[in-house]
Amino acid sequence: MVSASNDTTTADEVDEQLRDARDGAQSLIARADTKAQATLTVHSLTLAGAVALTKTQISTPAAVALGVAAVLFGAALVTTLLVLLPRLGRTSTGITAWARMSAAQVRAAAAHEYAGHDVAAHVATLSRIAVTKFALIRAALLMVIAGLVVTGAALLL
Q1: pLDDT tens digits, residue range 81-128?
Q2: In a domain, 58, yes or no
Q3: Cα(79)–Cα(84) distance, rounded to whole angstroms?
Q4: Would residue 9 count as lying in a domain?
Q5: 69 neighbors 155 (Cβ within 8 angstroms)
Q6: Which residues of 22-34 are buried (b: 16+ CB within 10 A; e: fewer)?
């Protein structure tokens, strides 16, 4: 027999779950930024390697392939930099809004935001940011993989 679920979740429990979700989303954003920083080195090295190989005595098809690989590596580098690019748009909440407020206004805004009223919206926003960052990292890594395949093919030409 299946038991009925407990639908008696209190507002305080929901607020706590939302705060935990917000903390988790913030953690994922930090993780994405760390991954992006680590992959910047890989992107830079692959781009430098492709450029260095074009300076050697190679056939025209190999040079074209290395040029394509260099473009892929460069695009991966730019895509990864977009992950790290701060988004400082004019929002009505959070640090960018607080920068335009007095201390008393910040206190009042924070009291409202952290009272659970805006936590759900904050979780949604942070989740979108995290998903966007991870999608950009994925795209950059796929470009590097494609660039490495093209580089490998160029070395065979």
Answers
A1: 999 888 776 666 667 777 888 888 888 877 776 665 677 877 888 899
A2: yes
A3: 9
A4: no
A5: no
A6: beebeebbeebee
Residue 86 falls within a domain, yes or no? yes
Residue 6: per-residue pLDDT: 53
* Nearest to 124, CA basis, from 21, 37, 38: 21
Expressed as residue numbers, the domain containing 69 is 26-156
Rounded to 5, what percent of the chain is helix, strand, coil?
80, 0, 20
Structural domain includes residue 135 = yes
Number of domains in the chain: 1
The Cα 30–Cα 110 span in angstroms is 22
Structure confidence at residue 17 as a pLDDT band (50, 70, 90): confident
pLDDT of residue 106: 81
